[in-house]
Amino acid sequence: MTPSQTKKLDELATALDMDPVALLAIAVLLRNKDSPSATLDRAKEQVDSFFAAGAEELLREHFSDNELIKRPPGKPQNSKSLEAVRELRAAGCSQSQVVEKLGLSRSTVHRYWRS
């Protein structure tokens, strides 16, 4: 959801004296033509699975003082791959050799090679 959509959801939920999660659940069950219990059961399973996988900590890393931390555009670097490229470069390997040894794409190796 965009910040403006989140704000609208909060405003509508407040006007209806509802929790935004309840309002969103109602919208989902109406869209899916599902029962309230099936929608909530499915949501609970997904939330439980999210926490069981340890994703909570990963998600928290993207927030500071309840604000989403903006990251630069583009795909984030894989620090392990970056380090492996640097080590092979220092060992005298060519970019083509690094592509072969690590199984990374040429563009990824080239990007890591320059950084």
Task: Give short descriptive properties of this protein.
115 residues, mainly alpha, two-stranded antiparallel sheet, 3% strand, elongated
Residue fraction in strands:
under 5%
For the largest beta-sheet, the strand count, sense and barrel status come to: 2 strands, antiparallel
Poorly predicted residue ranges: none
How would you state the average pLDDT, rounded?
90
Distance between the termini: 33 Å
Please, how many domains?
A: 2
Tally of helical segments: 7
Strand order across the largest sheet: 1-2
Helix-strand makeup class:
mainly alpha
Summarize the helix and strand pattern as letters.
HHHHEEHHH
Number of beta strands: 2
- The radius of gyration is 22 Å
Shape assignment:
elongated
Helical content (DSSP H or I, runs of 4+):
55-70%
